[in-house]
Each structure stands twice: as C-alpha cells, then as structure tokens.
Amino acid sequence: MKLYSWNVNGLRAILKKGSLQSFIDAHDPDILCLQETKAKQGQAEVDLPEYEEIWNSAERAGYSGTAIFTKMKPLAVAYGFPKHIEEQVEGWSDQFGDARREGRVLMAEFDDFYLINVYVPNEKQDLGRLKYRELVWDRALLAYMRELDAKKAVLVCGDFNVAHEEIDLARPKQNEGNAGFTKEGRQGMTNYLSSGFVDTWRDLHPNEQKYTWWSYRGGARAKNIGWRIDYFLASERLRGRIAAAEIYDSVTGSDHCPIMVELK
User: What is the pLDDT of residues 202-213, one digit of tens each?
Assistant: First the structure.
C-alpha cells in the first residue's frame, strides 16, 4: 500500500497546471493526503472517480484546508481535534477555534491503522504564532496521536512546518531561531519521536539530504536551497512494515513536493 502526502499550495492552481493529475497518473496512490487545499469541495474540478473524497476546508475562502483521497473506504472519519483533546491542553482550550476554522486536522480510520493528515501552523516570520504552535498545537497533536496509538497503529502525515535537525535544511546556521527552525518547534518534533513514533524517511535515509519545500524567492528551488518540513510519522510497531519512503523533489507545481511511504 502506497500513501502520499503533498502540500499543494492551492488545489485549484495545481489542477490548472496539470501537476496533480500527472502525478496521480504516474504513481497511482492508494491514499493521497493534501494540505493547503485553499478550496471547498465542489470549488475544485477534481475528476478522480476511483477515490473517495474527504475534505476539511477552512471557513475562510482561499486559505488552509486538508483533504484525503482514498481508494479504500474508511471505517470512520473525524475533523479537527476531539473536544476532550482540546480540554487536555490546560489553559489554552479557547485557542482551538483557529484549528477548527482552518481545517488543519483530518483523520481517517482504516482496518489496521489510523491516518491523521495535518497542516501544522507556521510560527510566522515574526514568531507571532510560536507559542500557539508550541503550547497548543504540538501538545494537542501529540495527545491525539498517543490516544489513537493505544488502540491501533497510527500514521501521521503532512506539512509540519519545522525542519527537525541541521541535515533537514540547506542553511541551518543562518536560520537558527527563525520560523521553521526554532528550538521550540524542533523540540515539538523531538517529542513526537520520543513518544513511540518514527520519522519514516529519516529512518530509511539516515544521512541523505533532501528537501520538501523551497522558498519562491531568490531561485531557491533551482539552487536546491530547501527545507524538509513534510513528514510521514509512524507508530513504532509499524516500523517493520515500512517498505519504502520517498521524497519526489523533482515534482513541481507547488512550493512543496510530494512524499510517500509504502506499507508492506
């Protein structure tokens, strides 16, 4: 089974370019998770009759949003963080309005695993959303992952908006402390990995330097000045079933590229 994740930075735009259809034709995903769809179901002309479509769109037009396209019908679907998970994040429960309105979390349950598709908020250039990211988002997502993992294995994919280690971005020294490479954001990823989850690509490619996002400025993509901020995290007990993990950095159409994990 092959699962793919891609921040498309606007589903309507990438459909017009033909990039999404070309990618699907070439790779034939069993499950495809999209982030930053920037559209509601029906606003984008998606012609994928063999897939069931699950959308969690932002209330604000042209912003955020997640979607799952799957050939296998899920047992259950959930949108956003469950209320009891929100309540566990002490003192910050009132901040979850943004998470609900922005369509950033989408869960589908299958026979032997849960799949969580996430579009994690970035910290903003002035770090104005750093505390929201650290104290609200990372805590809630980890609590949700742990809760589901107690029932069956979990896969979490999407744009996490953080490069975990220096190997995960082209210019770590120049970006230390900047959005996407703060100690708080990196600690959030460390917390996921120390709680029984595996960074599937890094696990299979421990020394390889590949990126999943490039700034539109300064010809960053042509120069490969990028960041690896898109991930598939898996429950530790899925480790033996990870047959492959790939980054398709030659695929264009968005400022991110697709990533994949294959389960035996």
Answer: 999 999 999 999
Q: Could you tell me the CA-to-CA distances from 208 to 137, 158, 161, 163, 248 in Å, in that order?
A: 29, 20, 20, 14, 14
Of these residues, 4, 144, 149, 159, which one is catalytic? 159
Residue 119 designated active-site: yes
SS3 letters across 156-220: EEEECCCCCCHHHECCHHHHCCCCCCCHHHHHHHHHHHCCCEEEHHHHHCCCCCCCCEECCHHHC
Domains of the chain: 2-263 (3.60.10.10)
**Which residue among 119, 192, 211, 231 is the active-site one?**
119
For the question of residue 159 being annotated catalytic, the response is yes
**pLDDT tens sequence across 136-169:** 899 999 999 999 999 999 999 999 999 999 999 9
Give residue-wise pLDDT tens across range 115-129: 999 999 999 999 988
Q: Strand 31-35 and strand 66-70: pairing? A: antiparallel
